[in-house]
Amino acid sequence: MNIAHSFNNWRQYRRTVSELGRMSNHRLNDIGIERAEIQRIAREALAR
């Protein structure tokens, strides 16, 4: 894996964590996510 690809993956991970982190607990619950799952979900999003 090259540096540019790794950097892009890191940016996408941070963007996902940030966007989900800004959501209220109520909104996260509406989409079936608990706050404690945010980092796992962001990592899984990269694997797709």
TrEMBL record:
<protein>
    <submittedName>
        <fullName>Uncharacterized protein YjiS (DUF1127 family)</fullName>
    </submittedName>
</protein>
<dbReference type="Pfam" id="PF06568">
    <property type="entry name" value="YjiS-like"/>
</dbReference>
<feature type="domain" description="YjiS-like">
    <location>
        <begin position="3"/>
        <end position="39"/>
    </location>
</feature>
<dbReference type="InterPro" id="IPR009506">
    <property type="entry name" value="YjiS-like"/>
</dbReference>
